[in-house]
Amino acid sequence: QVHLVESGGGLVQAGGSLRLSCAASERSFRTYGVGWFRQAPGKERELVAATNRNGDRTYYGDCAKGRFTISRDNAKNTVYLQMNSLKPDDTGVYYCAADRWADAQQMGELSPLDGSWGQGTQVSVSS
After folding, report:
1. Contacting residues for 44 by C-beta, under 8 A, at least 6 apart
2. In Å, how far are 1, 95, 105 from 55, measured between CA atoms?
């Protein structure tokens, strides 16, 4: 288990950008696959993007393709989600999750009952 802290959320106009960060204090974080998920009011949680422990493989949900980029800096124990061309439909709570040894695509199958999850950060996109 790792303790995850998300930051970088906020209110932005449609077409704008945000960069979310997911930080962990445990050195073992570099052995974890990491994913960003989001949940909008009244909707199920969905995968946005994921990366493997080295950061050399990524996997994106349909909602993110072409607009969002996931990356990680293991020296800083941090994973980032760069979000560009934001739309009102991107509004929701964004969660960071980590699962040890998971590859990027496996993160898409992570249950809320498994792995480690952060508390979430709110992203609101106005039209």
Report:
1. none
2. 19, 18, 12
Q: Residue 35 pLDDT more than 90?
A: yes
Residues 6 and 35 sit within 8 Å (Cβ to Cβ): no
Closest CA to 39 of 75, 63, 15, 65: 63
Amino acid at 32: Y
pLDDT tens-digit series, residues 81-122: 999 999 999 999 999 999 999 899 999 889 888 899 999 999
Dihedral of the CA atoms 77, 63, 93, 45 (nearest 10)? -100
Distance of CA 109 to the CA centre of its chain: 14
For residue 114, the Cα-to-chain-centroid distance in whole angstroms is: 16
